[in-house]
Write a structure and sequence with these properties.
Strand order of the largest sheet: 1-2-3-6-5-4
CATH superfamily: predicted glycosyltransferase like domains
CATH architecture: Beta Barrel
Number of helices: 1
Strand content: over 45%
Distance between the termini: 11 Å
Low-confidence stretches: none
Mean pLDDT: 85
Shape: globular
CATH topology: Thrombin, subunit H
Structural class: mainly beta
Length: about 120
């Protein structure tokens, strides 16, 4: 089987709030894994491939009054399961230390202590 992923994913369990760019009400979701180019999520309702999303990842930090960082992207993978839907969201822009300092630092720490997620 060919692995199409361009960036190493690592386990990264965090709470987040997901909003669809079409104006759908926000939903609490769980981040399952993270890479520079995207994130794996478990969401309560089905979201089709191609949907545009905004994600606020909760990252408690004393210098972060919003208590998270926002990323934007598109659903590239969606699989309905019994208790919800597993989706893969590709970011519009890669995570960088400048644009996403807290999320970038969390990813770097996770990469140091983890092995790749398949």
């Amino acid at each position: 089987m060919h692995d199409r992923r361009r960036y190493e994913r690592v386990p990264f369990i965090r709470d987040a709030v997901l909003g669809r760019d079409e104006g759908i009400a926000p939903a609490n979701v769980t981040v399952m894994d993270l890479s520079e180019g995207g994130v794996g999520l478990f969401v309560p309702n089905y979201i089709a491939q191609g949907a545009r999303l905004t994600l606020l990842v909760h990252l408690p930090h004393p210098d972060n009054p919003e208590r998270g960082e926002v990323v934007h992207g598109q659903v590239r993978f969606s699989k309905a399961e019994f208790e919800g839907t597993r989706i893969g969201m590709e970011f519009d822009e890669l995570l960088t230390e400048v644009r996403n300092p807290l999320l970038w630092a969390e990813l770097q720490a996770a990469l140091l202590r983890s092995t790749r997620v398949d």
